[in-house]
Description:
- By secondary structure, the protein is an alpha+beta fold.
- The protein has 15 helices and 23 strands.
- It has 2 domains: about 1-180, Beta-galactosidase, Chain A, domain 5 (Distorted Sandwich); about 185-590, Glycosyltransferase (Alpha/alpha barrel).
- The protein has helices at about 115-120, 185-190, 210-225, 245-255, 260-275, 300, 315-330, 335-340, 340-350, 395-415, 415-435, 475-485, 515-530, 535-550, 580-590, and strands spanning about 1-5, 10-15, 25-30, 30-40, 45-55, 55-65, 75-85, 85-95, 100-115, 130-135, 140-145, 145-155, 160-165, 170-180, 225-230, 230-235, 295, 310, 395, 440, 445, 450, 455.
- The protein is globular and about 85 Å long.
Amino acid sequence: xxxxxxxxxxxxxxxxxxxxxxxxxxxxxxxxxxxxxxxxxxxxxxxxxxxxxxxxxxxxxxxxxxxxxxxxxxxxxxxxxxxxxxxxxxxxxxxxxxxxxxxxxxxxxxxxxxxxxxxxxxxxxxxxxxxxxxxxxxxxxxxxxxxxxxxxxxxxxxxxxxxxxxxxxxxxxxxxxxxxxxxxxxxxxxxxxxxxxxxxxxxxxxxxxxxxxxxxxxxxxxxxxxxxxxxxxxxxxxxxxxxxxxxxxxxxxxxxxxxxxxxxxxxxxxxxxxxxxxxxxxxxxxxxxxxxxxxxxxxxxxxxxxxxxxxxxxxxxxxxxxxxxxxxxxxxxxxxxxxxxxxxxxxxxxxxxxxxxxxxxxxxxxxxxxxxxxxxxxxxxxxxxxxxxxxxxxxxxxxxxxxxxxxxxxxxxxxxxxxxxxxxxxxxxxxxxxxxxxxxxxxxxxxxxxxxxxxxxxxxxxxxxxxxxxxxxxxxxxxxxxxxxxxxxxxxxxxxxxxxxxxxxxxxxxxxxxxxxxxxxxxxxxxxxxxxxxxxxxxxxxxxxxxxxxxxxxxxxxxxxxxxxxxxxxxxxxxxxxxxxxxxxxxxxxxxxxxxx
Length: 597
């Protein structure tokens, strides 16, 4: 399957060169508007192969025999799909290498399905026929009480093409989708009257393998960018997460803010605009929380799933403040004034939702939300070393590191007593953290504290995130670095999410043994900042090998097997591309740029 995307339109095209079967389709605003698009041809054309595949276009070669040909295939069809801003275009180019004129009739069979993205992912579909209308001008409309999606076709989907010998003949049509939201959410407001703006993605020159990685990462970033009312915003990952995620975009800002200030600013602006100012248990929403996920499809707007604006993320809010603080240091404190209300609301949320030891914790109140609300959000990710599942409320190790940095931001944002208050909070948090999370026997930090304050004692990659914060006592940083570089954690291709010595370890699990490039890259940032440069470069080189193996696109995750030659186990449903893996590419380029070939 081939994924192409530009702006808010995405197409998944099958290996046979057609939009047909399973998850293939033309997608727009969390909806698969077309589930099938196949040309019927008066002559039989057979697939020759893929022509060229880019982020926003792909074409295929087909071949046939003219009626008068004795042996040779002499008719060629180049079938192209492309997306440009607000339209999806299909182009058929015919080449006739016979000696006579050949007439070919082409008619595209199109099935308008208007499936919600969650229907596609679950495989359970509703009949939408009574909500779909079609007029004679090739305009098809889906309408419910929540939204209206209309597609218009420019050009003809049925053509009789007279192919003169040795002359190129081409026909094309474009599909232009549009949406009208009938209810207003913080999400739909973002996608009303969107702006097709441009953003500067120019980069410094790199050499050798790093240049290839940076080039691919830049192309993938451009592919991920969504058009919103407030400018470009990077989607979390394709194909299933082509929407706004708070945590993912904030991690990306921390990876690339020095390279892409405009995108980082847009991220902060959009997340401030979509911040919760209400209480809703089904959405895990409290005033001040930064968004976890936004969806604008039928299932989300109708309330069938809670993700129209879902806030089940414990780390997005401290990460937001952490990113604001970093932005202010790089580009000036004017961002404090511009995001004043969001910063103050975030501070209030944190003040009201820490426990007696100063820790930020999560316990979902939603009946169909996320049970685990850190970046490792799968149901089995919070486990003790013996495999038992930790019970909420859970206090995650890396979240306390983010919280420490959030306090540093707030101390800069406020003046006088308020500033001192947050410095004092940071100092107390650091003291308690180094007492409560430290496992003396292991010389490592626990993954979390459970509902009873017990250490969730699995050895995981999570404490590596704390290296890029100031929460770890200086003398303990070396223990963390050394432990992460041991064979049970470092595969030679990156750092495992969980030690191979743990009962729950599985190298091809989602969060309990696999390798996530973004996870390793965050640790690299911390190592570099704390002057463990040799280890950071070792990790950088290991991920560069991974990038080369995957043709320079770092996957969302891959198997955490030990390095043996070039053997890497792909993860079967990894997003490609995925935002924070794209960000990892830029982290690698910065760390390895000195002396790399």
